[in-house]
Write a structure and sequence with these properties.
Two copies of one chain form a homodimer. Chain A is α/β, with parallel strands linked by helices. The first copy, chain A, is built from 16 helices and 17 strands. The N terminus of chain A is likely disordered.
Chain lengths: 474, 474
DNA sequence: ATGGATTTGTCCGTATGTATG
DNA sequence: TCATACATACGGACAAATCCA
């Protein structure tokens, strides 16, 4: 990189270049943790530019959690352990769907701990619009026509890179299928796996999308018991199922992170029975404590994993872009089915191409890092608040990743009643037992999301919740 | 050269003059390399003109490699050594930007009679972008979140009005379900009709989307014979099916328009057997000869018709908005299924809301009327051309509506061969017999679309087609 | 130890290229 | 063509933190 003033740099911005350089130095280890960066003035003088771009670069690095500012003392590279501290975003998109429209029903919660809410305050809307305008102009009207039903090749290629770098997934662009809705993708999956098996083993509890879609497609569903490591392989082997659906990076709703040993065991199983593991990795980007666990898909050279991902949590639901990564042997089956039912693309090419640019120019990566920090703070605030108010009258489960935790209490009151009482005071939380396929746990469990609520409302909300629940706690 | 504002320069453009002046100064050495030019505003003020011509002049100089832009810092004269290299670069860049996006350019076909192509020359892209910007701004970030899974209420309401006014469909906004893909909607339909019947009667030939989707969902498919009025009700009654799928306004691919008497007969049948008619009305907007026939759905007060429509043909495929109109008694079943599989909205709210405004302010109606005229001209041109060239050696079927006709000829050659021969000469048409479910008709049939091809290419293309086919015609 | 000088993060006003309408 | 909005870049002001005689 050349930052001398008389160098030719007609394309990129100064602050972006400075940011990139420092980021690389941190990642590569050239800048060790706790190292103090050159001061803004010094750095600016060295580069012979003004202080502003340097300052902007530093701020971006702070937002993404690479460095921290100690006022009047300097900027310091943060500890690696902190850098990866992020809850992985839970894949929960559970909308309160018992109501006809989410829109119309606005009971206006004051403290909204809804689990699928995310924080749009930091969405780079200007950048997005800029790219959108770049993509969509009078010269590109042809983009209004049908595109590749599998998804725009350029975007699939970007997703490939991203998955490799961030989730350790190994695939080619041809393995990726893009769709506007998770249900649609699972439905396709159900169709192309029909000849392989007629039953699916699932985690219990679990998010109903996958198992209900398979069930309505004609599959039998086998609920599997779970332990601290996630789904129990022994039970799986005994079931004689050949397809299993899991969410190893942050199990819904419990938040279990499946250890690597168990992942390997499952991969071994899949190979033995020639089965398939459906790895639902929605939100695997967000972890708060340690480094993200590599995905099953990329753990071993393997042809038995179907990886599911999407941009709802990590960017915005409205762009309607989800994807699945099919092993090579399933790709022809997909095309066969796609042709048979005359499938068109379901995700708008305008959004797809905008997202491609967004990923290509680094904005996406920056956004993820920034959001990871934002959510980490909220996560910490929530845990502190629960500890402070509930003390030993509550247990928290699954707090190391995702955008929600499980709050577990003892009470004779039903989860529904407790939820209703909270709602009356303007607090939104959700009961968790609805996600169990059969028997429910002894304690009362609630899903407390922290993605959408403002940081400074968290403590207040939890305090109020504890206050109104006090008579009902044991 | 005089650049004073009062000077008379009737011929040349301002920006050209400014450009020439600076270019001369650079070439003559008056402006040394690395010199910073006056900023756009300063220069404009000095010349007492607006900033735009100065900006254009600077851009031209950049394109030709005389100067470079350092963002937010100024424009600088490039080094002479680089100037010649840049000249080449500029050339390349110019070529690049003159290409109308990478995607579309497939110069394979000179005369593209593809059936699903539509004419984007008249798409009101500026108006659309205006509305898009109105809809999508920093204040509306919340629109990036999940919306109503059934579709935005505002848009559903607009569609209701439109359907009533243009297609004679009677419904409420609550009856409309919006989805990103036809296959998805039919799939949902298949799921919620499961308890009603396990077989579907379909037209033969037909577009495979509906029947193959039903078939993979587990339904049996009954192909029904057709006559000049469309699907034969006698055969339908004999089949004991209770669900039938038809496209009465412009049957695919034959183009039959079902007369009102037959429609009434079918409605009668549906009532008797408590069955359902799936009315696929794609392309019903475009009729060229007489008034549009009212849809079955609105013909009689009836609770047995499911209406299918979308905006792919009439506006643009890429907005990914299709819809179905469910009778009241099916609406609860839809919600039940939607909740069970945790369905989210699949069409982008940004597009939905933009479309809503587009319909609300009358642009949509104007666009339809305009396109109807455009396609009518092309339709007439195509018929004239076929008559002129093929004379009595070809028959045309289904020419009164839609965006394609069936060209029917006698030949010993296969449809595939004839299609291939046409392709070699740069003509794209499609064989029609692939759409028959069993036996094929005696004559060779081809689908000739006229939506995408330029008006003045039609006669030429048909002439060429006739010319190359002459030896094979009987 | 101390007070002044220096360094530093932070904030702000202005200028500029770019995009939009 | 003009006017406007916006993010960036420049350079300076200020107070807190640090350093040094």
């Amino acid at each position: 990189m050349n930052l001398l003033p008389n160098s030719t740099m007609s394309k990129s911005y100064l602050h972006t270049e400075i940011y990139e350089k420092i980021k690389q130095d941190i990642i590569s280890g050239k800048l060790r943790e706790q190292t103090r960066l050159a001061s803004i003035r010094k750095h600016a003088e060295f580069l012979a530019v003004s202080t502003t771009p340097v300052e902007m670069a530093y701020r971006q690095l702070i937002a993404e959690g690479f460095i921290e500012s100690r006022p009047r003392r300097g900027f310091f590279v943060v500890k690696m352990s902190e850098m990866y501290r992020n809850l992985d975003m839970a894949q929960v998109q559970y909308l309160d769907s018992s109501l006809p429209t989410l829109q119309a029903q606005k009971p206006e919660y004051i403290y909204d701990f809804h689990m699928s809410k995310i924080d749009f305050a930091y969405f780079p809307i200007q950048e997005w619009k800029r790219l959108l305008n770049q993509v969509f102009n009078p010269e590109s009207v042809d983009m209004l026509f049908y595109g590749d039903p599998q998804g725009e090749p350029g975007l699939r290629s970007e997703i490939t890179n991203y998955l490799y770098q961030f989730r350790g997934v190994n695939c080619q662009a041809d393995n990726i299928v893009i769709g506007a809705e998770q249900h649609l993708l699972i439905h396709i999956l159900g169709q192309i796996l029909k000849d392989h098996s007629d039953c699916v083993a699932v985690e219990n509890p679990a998010y109903p999308l996958v198992y209900n879609t398979f069930q309505t497609t004609g599959y039998q569903i086998y609920p599997m018991p779970m332990d601290a490591g996630g789904l129990d392989p022994t039970a799986l082997k005994a079931s004689h199922a050949r397809i299993v659906s899991i969410s190893p990076s942050h199990q819904f709703p419990v938040g279990t992170v499946m250890p690597v040993s168990r992942r390997l065991e499952l991969l071994e199983w899949a190979k033995e029975v020639d089965g398939f593991i459906i790895e639902d990795d929605y939100g695997g980007e967000f972890r708060y404590q340690d480094k993200p666990v590599p995905s099953l898909q990329g753990l071993l050279p393997n042809d038995n994993v179907i990886y599911l991902g999407g941009f709802s949590q990590v960017l915005a639901p409205d762009i309607c872009i989800h994807y699945m990564v099919l092993p090579d042997k399933l790709v022809p089956l997909y095309h066969q089915y796609r042709r048979k039912v005359m499938m068109e693309g379901s995700s708008s090419r305008i959004h797809q191409n905008t997202l491609e640019l967004f990923m290509k120019n680094g904005s996406f990566e920056r956004h993820i890092r920034r959001m990871r920090n934002v959510y980490r703070k909220k996560n910490r605030e929530l845990l502190t608040a629960i500890q402070q108010h509930f003390k030993n009258k509550a247990t928290v489960i699954g707090a190391s990743a995702g955008l929600h935790v499980i709050l577990q209490i003892h009470s004779h009151w039903s989860e529904e009643d407790l939820t209703a009482i909270a709602r009356k005071e303007g607090i939104r939380i959700s009961p968790a037992t609805g996600f169990y396929l059969d028997e429910t746990p002894g304690q009362k469990q609630f899903i407390v999301g922290f993605g959408g609520i403002k940081l400074n409302c968290i403590n207040e909300g939890i305090g109020l919740l504890h206050h109104i629940w006090t008579p009902m706690l044991q």
